[in-house]
Amino acid sequence: QVHIVESGGGLVQPGGSLRLSCTASGSIFSIEEMGWYRQAPGEQRELVASILTTNGNTNYADSVKGRFTLSRDYALNSVHLRMTELKPEDTAVYYCHAGLLTLTRTYRNFWGQGTQVTVSS
Asked: Strand 107-111 relative to strand 18-26: parallel, antiparallel, unpaired?
């Protein structure tokens, strides 16, 4: 069994900052990819940022480049998303994603329950 635990999120004024954290634990052989997606009301879930374990490459949505920074703590199987210069359009439920190999070497995708980020004055 794999558990994805998220923390952070909340209400912030435009121009403010927030930090989201996510930790994966349980029956994990290796984590191949880890990151954050978001879903606004009436919209599809979209990638915010992700990082590949194999080469450390980080991928960002165009809308967050230069404002958001994703970092990975390999020892703790965690990722942290530092969000700055937040805009009202960043308002969404943010979901942590982990693509990993289980102890049976099966690749699976796991999701957190989601954390609300609201940017409003």
From this structure: unpaired
Q: What is the pLDDT of residues 34-50, one digit of tens each?
A: 999 999 999 999 999 99
Q: Each residue of 56-66: pLDDT tens digit?
A: 899 999 999 99
Number of H helices, E strands in the chain: 0, 11
C-alpha–C-alpha distance, residues 48 and 84, integer Å? 13
Q: Residue 94 pLDDT > 90, yes or no?
A: yes
Burial of 40 (0-12, 13-18, 19+ CB in 10 A): middle
Q: Which residue has 């954390």 as its token pair?
A: 115
Structure-block tokens of residue 27? 């029956």
Q: Which of 3, 5, 2 is nearest to 115 (CA)?
A: 5
DSSP line for 17-71: -EEEEEEEEESEEEEEEEEEEEE-TTS--EEEEEEETTT--EEE-TTTTTTEEEE
